[in-house]
Amino acid sequence: METVAKRLYEGMFLVDSAQAAADWEGTLSVIDNILKRADAEVVSMQKWQERKLAYEIDHKTRGTYILCYFNASGERIAGIEKDVLLSEKVMRVLILGTEKRPPEMIEADIKGESEEKPAEEKAPESAAPAEPKPETPAPAPAAETTEEAAPEKAEAEASEPTSAEAGEAEPASADEGTEKAAE
User: Can you give the residue range of the structural domain that contains 69?
Assistant: First the structure.
């Protein structure tokens, strides 16, 4: 019997915030059961953040992210992703290998240490007054580029008869106008 080498993986599980708040232990046990079915050994599992979702997933607008580090064989990752698809509690999952991440970052995540500065160090930066906005609006760059970039178009329109003179509809784009001018 061969022994399969297990590697360290990072998994980000997205669950509904309402369900997570109502039954936090049950939510963690669902993720733990999914990993146990794949013979994965959980190293660390913790709540990462609760955020507003960029788009609705199953009519839900908020989600809670759970960061999990686990050891598993590479062949079992597809099974974990399939179990998440079949799960009613877990909405999404992202699983990454950790071999390219610096070990100190992984250790900080496993210990639950935040990489952000404490609030005391951030206060002076956020307390700085905002720069005043200029009162005069900047000229629109599109106006400058139309005159400079399209001298051929202006020449073509000048030599082309107007739609009333020609008795036909005006071209829909500049390319059609130059093609008709060339004919």
Answer: 7-115
Q: What is the pLDDT of residues 59-68, one digit of tens each?
A: 999 999 999 9
Query: How far apart, in whole angstroms, are the C-alpha atoms of residue 73 and residue 63?
Result: 28
Contact predicate 49/104, CB 8 Å: no
The candidate with the shortest Cα–Cα distance to 45, out of 17, 11, 73, 79, is 11
Residues in the chain with pLDDT values less than 50: 117-130, 132-134, 143-151, 153-154, 156, 163-166
Do 17 and 99 lie in one domain? The reply is yes
Tell me what pLDDT residue 101 has.
Answer: 87
CA distance readout (Å), 32 to 9, 28, 38, 76, 173? 14, 6, 10, 14, 59
Burial classification of residue 22, based on how many CB atoms lie within 10 Å of its CB (0-12 exposed, 13-18 middle, 19 or more buried): exposed
The domain that contains 86 carries what CATH number?
Answer: 3.30.70.60
Are residue 32 and residue 87 in the same domain, yes or no?
yes
